[in-house]
Amino acid sequence: MRLKLIAISLLLLCLLSGSCSSVPDFDDQLDSIVNPYRFSAVRWEVGAISDEVRQWLCREQEADDNQTETVIEYFPLVEQINSLETEIAALSADEKQGDLAWLETELNSLQEQRMTLIGKVESIIASQIKEVLAEQGILHPLDEYIKLKVSFPPLNFKLGKLPYLLVISPRDRIESIREIALQPDLTLEEMESIENQADELGVSSLVAGLGGAGALYPTLVTESASLQFAIDTAVEEWLHQYLAFKPLGFLYVLDLAGISRNYEIATMNETLAGIVSKEIGAIIRQKYYPGYENSAQQEQESGFDFNLEMREIRRTVDEYLAQGEIEQAEEFMEQKRQYLASMGYYIRKLNQAYFAFHGTYADKPTSISPIGVELRKLREQSASLKDFLNMVAGMTSRQDLIDSIK
């Protein structure tokens, strides 16, 4: 069963990476730009499976008492590593002074400590997620017809470096028309070179960082994540695999493959997975990690409302584009990008592709879609999280969602 799931996930990633058809000249030119940097799903799967086998052979049986302590020990290490890497990057760019050799030695020491814990942490969190999903009655996509107390797809995830995603949008509207997975070790110069060459084809492009990859098996969650982000993302990526066996998720697979584009289906799928994963994640943290906080979760208090600002930017950009004022929209986005940076919110590139990538999450500030409000309203009216998930998972259009709201 696991080999079958791996084969399915590879197929999905290949469809995602190579996608969508219609203009051969454009695709040929784009391929010539990205081919040296493409992410190899096959190579990653081989490495992940080898690592799984090694961990399984070497894993020692441990008492359950210290499981939460192991996880709590791990994530502060991640924060320290992230901080040191930022400091080392600043020193290397001559932006500040310090003892580079000492910092690199300290970083290596922390990374070694992290590697001794990572396999245990992945296993512990996966076990906790499965337990809470089972408590919620969310086991497998066919549980309405087959009453088996098993979890499917098997929940398994790795903490590691994620591939980047090249997102292509037309300049005259906000819509993702190509998404291609790229290698995880790209430099900033390589990202900007890919974007500049793609933009010369008359489109808007962005090399975006990912938080998780559900098209792989095991699913992949960024190694620099906080505890909250790691749990929520591991759940969300599993939900994408779960939903692929339901009408809504299957239509989303067709959208990703470029076979049948449907932006509303994509938005419903992504937003549903986000809502459910956050609710499951909150239950897990309350059950296993009450009172735990990490500094990455603590937001700075200020009078600036980032979410409101992003929604207003998106609305204004849509108005410019609707009037055919493409250059004005792009100038406006760059001005706003600089303004956000002055307020402490750095966005490397703010353009049509940025909004196309982030806009499918209707519960995010970069989206102006009403689907997020509609899904939350339906969740309030649902008897349980499982009922809500399965009701939406069975839908095939946004009209189904509207009709389901009482």
Count of individual helical segments: 15
Mean pLDDT over the full residue set = 84
Q: Write the H/E string, N to C.
A: HHHHHEEEHEEEHHHHHHHHH
The computed structural class is mainly alpha
Shape: globular
Largest beta sheet, briefly? 3 strands, mixed
Q: Could you tell me the number of beta strands?
A: 6
Strand content: 5-15%
Radius of gyration over all CA atoms, rounded:
22 Å
- Structurally, the number of domains stands at 1
Uncertain spans, ≥5 residues at pLDDT below 50?
Answer: 1-8, 14-23, 295-300
Q: Span between N and C termini? A: 40 Å
Give the fraction of residues assigned to helices: 55-70%
Question: How are the strands of the biggest sheet laid out side by side?
Answer: 1-6-5
Give a written overview of the molecule:
- With 406 residues, the chain is mainly α.
- The protein has one domain.
- Helices cover 59% and strands 7% of the residues.
- The chain is built from 15 helices and six strands.
- The chain has a three-stranded mixed beta sheet. A three-stranded antiparallel beta sheet has the order 3-2-4.
- Strand 2 and strand 3 form a beta hairpin.
- The N terminus is likely disordered.
Condensed summary:
This protein is mostly helical.
Give me some keywords for this one.
globular, mainly alpha, three-stranded mixed beta sheet, 406 residues, 15 helices, disordered N terminus, three-stranded antiparallel beta sheet
